[in-house]
Amino acid sequence: MSAQLGTVTTALVTDQNDKFYSVQKEGITYQLDKSEGDYQLGDAVQGFIYENMKHTKMMTTQLPDVRQGRYGWSTVTAVRKDLGVFVDIGLADKEIVVSLDDLPSEKHLWPKKGDRLFIRLEVDKKERIWGKLAEDQVFQQITNKLSPQSKSWTNQEVKGTVYHAKLVGTYVITDDYFLAFIHESERLEEPHLGQEVQGRVIGIGQNGNLNMSLKPLAHTVISEDAQMILALLQRQPNHFLPYHDKSNPDDIREYFGISKAQFKRALGNLLKNGQVEQVEGGIRLK
Question: Which residues form a coiled coil (predicted)?
Answer without folding.
Answer: none
